[in-house]
Write a structure and sequence with these properties.
Elements (H helix, E strand, L loop, with lengths): L11 E6 L1 H18 L5 E7 L3 H9 L6 E9 L7 E5 L9 E9 L3 H11 L5 E9 L12 E5 L5 E2 L15 E4 L6
Parallel strand pairs: 2-3, 2-5, 5-6, 6-7
Antiparallel strand pairs: 1-9, 3-4, 8-9
Helix pairs in contact: 1-2
Bound molecules: inosinic acid and magnesium ion.
């Protein structure tokens, strides 16, 4: 395989959000967070792997001192949203103003579980910033403090999000043709 020309990948159906549209959304979120976290002790916490592209852009859109930390989880697959932390945060969040940064929220079960775990560590505050919100699928009763944009109930890839590990490097958010997911 020589190059990879995303627009010629037959599995991709179309672009839901272009990289320019995503950049505008990220800039707006960054401004809101900058205004809201003045004088606080901001700790950005991101869930790997999907959140890595978003956090890279978002942290540069926030004009405040902050720290970055990462955790990785794997679902038990029982449908209840319980997750195992496969890579924990490196630093304590006790007394910090934690902002959990997520690429996409679907049922909300994963995040709901994760917030329960993080709250036990006694942060001063905890809030959530999600770039994409598939809110029609929401099961967990969650308040999301910063939402980039609502999206319809479609499986999407790109801008960090994957199918079987691929497509994370697409600079835009794309939909897949029906049937690709098997
Ligand atoms: P939830 O527990 O149903 O909210 O699932 C959330 C997680 O599932 C997200 O953090 C993503 O990692 C993954 N996910 C949900 N929807 C999509 C999608 O459309 N494309 C890629 N990953 C997704
Ligand atoms: Mg995720």
């Amino acid at each position: 395989m020589k190059g990879y020309h995303a627009f010629h990948d037959p599995a991709l159906e179309g672009v839901m959000y272009s990289s320019e549209e995503i950049a505008e959304i990220v800039a707006r979120l960054g401004s809101q967070i900058t205004a809201d976290y003045q004088g606080r002790d901001l700790a950005l916490v991101t869930v790997l792997r999907g959140g890595f592209v978003f956090i890279a852009d978002l942290c540069r859109a926030i004009d405040l001192p902050l720290t970055l930390d990462f955790l990785a989880i794997s679902a038990y697959g029982d449908g209840g949203g319980a997750v195992r932390i496969t890579k924990d945060l490196d630093d304590s969040i006790a007394g910090r103003d934690v902002l959990v940064v997520e690429d996409i929220i679907d049922t909300g079960l994963t995040l709901n579980y994760l917030l329960g775990v993080l709250r036990q560590r006694r942060p001063a505050s905890i809030a959530v910033c999600a770039l994409f919100d598939k809110d029609v699928r929401r099961i967990a009763d969650l308040a999301i403090d910063y939402v980039g944009t609502r999206i319809p109930d479609r499986f999407v890839v790109g801008y960090g999000m994957d199918l079987g590990g691929r497509y994370r490097n697409l600079p835009f958010l794309a939909t897949l043709h029906d049937g690709v997911m098997g």
